[in-house]
Amino acid sequence: MIQQPDIVMPRSVDMPHALCRTTENGVKIYSLPTDDFEVVRFTLVFRAGTSVQLKPFVASSTLNMLGEGSSTMTAQQIADELDFYGSYFDVNIDRDYTYISFCSLSKFFAPTIKVAREIVLHPIFPERELKTYCEKRKQSLKIERRKIEVQSRELFAKALFGAEHPYGISASEECYDDVAREDVVAMYERCYTADNCFVVMSGRIDDEVMSAVEELVAGLSRGEICHVKEAPTETTYCLHREVNEALQSSIRIGRLLFPRTHPDFVGMQVVASILGGYFGSRLMSNLREEHGYTYGVSAAMINFDREGYFALATQVAREHRDDALREIYSEIERLRVELVSEEELEMVKNVMIGEILRILDGPFGIADVTIENIMCGMDNEATERSVEAIAAITAEEIRDLAYRYLERDKLVEVVVG
Fold it and tell me: What is the pTM of this model?
């Protein structure tokens, strides 16, 4: 009879270390070469997120308008050229950074980076397209904000940081009416510079590919480093918003803690996973399996450039709101005073390390983790250390972290519905 081998979860990872070179204008290019795949992806990361914008919605408008035409190509020509070669161009934005990614087969890299140069270095931000974009986003945001989960997410940020803090601001959708072309151009000229940029490349990288990327970023002008606007943090510990027509209540609970560079960040990631980080977590078992209050619940540590926080979120039927809150706080308190069993702790460790291994299965996942490490001022040894810390953490350490950081009167509670 064939016997299935035991499942052995690694307790360490061997993370590839990125090679780094610096261009004459100061842009650091990190490369993760591999010949296993005939693809190339490169991502330009700019310190140009919403926390450095001078007017609401200008950061996202600037980023999303990059592909709407250049000095030599229309938006349609850009899209057609990339589509013809099976390449893709993608943009993303968060509070601190914007991400511009290009990916192509190795044999079509040359025409792809030709288009990339137009998008990154020569955008024209046509006024007509900008007005259309803003109008669409205004209507879309207005519809999105009818959802209680969107309202609770924005209200939670406001409760954590304060209404005037760059991480807590939630501007009216009407502010899209005030976004002008000169605002977008000014944001581009101020933030899309060599001093605010680094690049991460992965895939089949030869000298020709590297030279082409260096040539692209060499076209970026120098400029001052963009910083998050200074503002005091004003935390509100309880915010409830009644929405009479809502059938559910959206709940968010958490607190400001520390960014990823803090020595307790990984430990609090384990605490969050035990509470709501996977399908068999305590809150999922309690709220969904035992009581039927919700379809799902999540908990995590969130990292920003200047701040970090713990948060858990769920949606429950409005008639079970108070019951769900009671059970959530009960599970938090249990974690603060009782030791996690070895069986549960081993399960959580396996889930967390397994998820890291899943993300690292391929050059693009490794590149994404590398980007996150660089933004935190770390190299890829940080990921190796995180896996080792997860594997080594004890039940006593988890109880102590929960006791220290999840005290009831320090938690922010937001309920919408």
Answer: 0.94
